[in-house]
Amino acid sequence: MAKKKDSKSKTASPQEVPAGESMLDILNQDFSWDTIKKFLTYEIPSPFASQHTGLDDVELRQNHMTEKQIQEYRARKAHVGDTFGDYLVDRSIITPDQLKEAQTFRQKTDQPLWRTLLHLRMITPQQLAKLLRLDFPIGTLPENDFTQHLIRKRIVKKRDLKAAWKAAQEKKMHFLDYLRQEDIASDEAIAQALAGQLNLPYESLENISVIPEVALDQVPYHFPFRYHAIPYRFEDNVLYVAFADGDNIVEMEGMGLLFDFEIQPVIAPKSTLDRLLKTYVPQMDADTAEEEGRQYELQNEIADKPAPQLLDIILKGVLRRDGSDIHFEPQKGFYRIRYRVDGILHDVLTLPREIARKVLNQVKNLAELDIVNPMIPHDGHLVIVMDDKDMNFRVSVLPTPDGEKMVLRVVKMHFAFSRFEQLGMELSHRKLMDQLMQMPSGLILVAGPVGSGKTTTVYSCMNCLNPFTQNIMTIEDPVEYKLVGTTQAQVNHKVEMTFAVGLKAILRQDPDIIMVGEIRDEETASVAVSAALTGQKVFSTIHANSAPNACTSLQFLGIRPTLMGHALAGIVFQKIARLNCPHCTREFDADTALKKAVKWPADKPLKIKQGTGCPTCLQTGFHGRTGLFEILIPDDHFKNALAHSPTHEEITKAALKSGMLAMHDHASELLIKGKISPTEFHRIL
């Protein structure tokens, strides 16, 4: 589950972000809800491992834990699940019988309770995500920005906060509601502390005498009661919405992706907000509106629109946020709509199955896909005119037991004409790319995992070529970008027009330069290498996890190392890194471990930056992406090493010795410059 900055979760302090918490630290403290959430999602950072997806006894012992500490960890993990389960029963989200069934099932699988509940379909992913955002009183009082603000400003003493937390637990009340009810802290103090925790503006709203109709008219009539919020200003295409707490902000922001304007949440005192709601939204009383809001939510108002109009809203929403993909995911009884923005999936909308099917059929019609047979996968291309511009989407449909899953990938045409610097390459990378582009022949591979931008880089290479004096030809699946002056052919499996068949045909067309969309089988690899050996310049992509590993991938496809060494002109390996959000980035000191990772002197200070989450970045801390690159131009030493069928370690050493620009160095450079966070640095490497 992609982890977003929870609307009421603990905001990590600058010192906490790079160092993380060790398992021993967690075992030696009392549990707060923040710690419980870490156990629930198995996202416990540790100096001994970059990511935990569940820890077995071997891993625990490798973390230098004793048998007693391992037993304590196991017991507490089980206790965390039970505590969360009790909370769900108390709120009637699941029944006691369901909890008992889930606990029995969990004992057989040793999976966490939340995953068991999802597996048994007792709770939806959307419900779970919302629950993990709430700051309900479980465990010990969290020492987050909210509580620290109240203590630091001497509004409430720490012991009184602890007592209030315990009392709220006993009464099963929301912590903020209890503070207000018992007059432990004023509305203004609570709102100011909450604004600091959520990194949102604070507004007293005391000087608001009139709320313009243009602000209220931007949202459906039940919106204020559904989210207990009021729109109070609309200017420069930004709607300012005041909230009394953070429970609904993330959910509202997800829905806000569908609006034509930006929503800026602010935090205001609850008493002032309640007064404004009664004054400016008098159409119905609060109880009636809340009940109606539950039955007829904003998404239902959107869902009532005809399929073409609904599809238009969904497509425009992802384009406004510069998203890369739209996911239509079948669930039990409904469809879940999500956008991928800056590499992270965000819930946007839930549609009834019948309405979702109409939208999917609308996409299939426009993409000229088979509607009659929903039991086979489909791939296609969709072009829709929006704001007098042709917008391109790649469509993929996959049948599942719950229905068809559809993914629409945004094809951003301008990326095909990007310069290498725009992709994220530094001057050192550009020098090697210039060297590659000037080579008269040979195989140039762009390697990387799925979704790493390999096709974009290949097209950037093609745009460096001269189409006036050279015969440039491609075989692709599909042809995503039109290159003027280039002959482009497309794979068509229905008539057995494969990469290999198309490539053989191209070789009979007197080509100077050939681009093969992807090397994915032995025949294509063999023909591409043969073409490179006979004087053509061949560009292609291949799946690999490093530049040297691309040679191993070719070897798995039957290419002999000696031939590979003669054919290879260069390898460009890449990944996509998420950039820090410029609006919420904070600076802090790097710890010793991080300095060592980036080869920084231990006695020299190093400032590192990380986004903390804000409305601009959808509370993720990331805004925008860039490429990370590793470039290898084989020299004689590398080719000699390659000829002896080296191991992965040997081929990597040979690549470094030949002058390869390693991805680790590029990532370290971006981290030191403050462009990426320590979290992203470790994720990439």
Architecture overview:
With 685 residues, this protein is of the alpha/beta class. The protein has four domains: 16-140, no CATH class; 158-300, GMP Synthetase, Chain A, domain 3 (2-Layer Sandwich); 307-410, Beta-Lactamase; 415-576 and 627-662, P-loop containing nucleotide triphosphate hydrolases (Rossmann fold). 43% of the residues lie in helices and 19% in strands. The chain contains 32 helices and 18 strands. The strands form four sheets. It has a seven-stranded mixed sheet with strand order 12-11-13-14-10-15-18, sandwiched between helices. A six-stranded antiparallel sheet has the order 6-5-4-9-8-7. Helix 9 packs across helix 12, helix 26 packs across helix 30 and helix 27 (561-567) packs antiparallel against helix 29 (636-642). Mean pLDDT is 81; it is low at 1-31, 38-57 and 283-298.
Short description:
The chain has 685 residues and is of the alpha/beta class. It contains 32 helices and 18 strands. The strands form four sheets. It has a seven-stranded mixed β-sheet with strand order 12-11-13-14-10-15-18, with helices on both faces. It has a six-stranded antiparallel β-sheet with strand order 6-5-4-9-8-7. It has a three-stranded mixed β-sheet with strand order 1-2-3, with helices on both faces.
Any key phrases for this structure?
685 residues, alpha/beta, GMP Synthetase, Chain A, domain 3, 4 domains, seven-stranded mixed β-sheet, 43% helix, 19% strand, globular, disordered N terminus
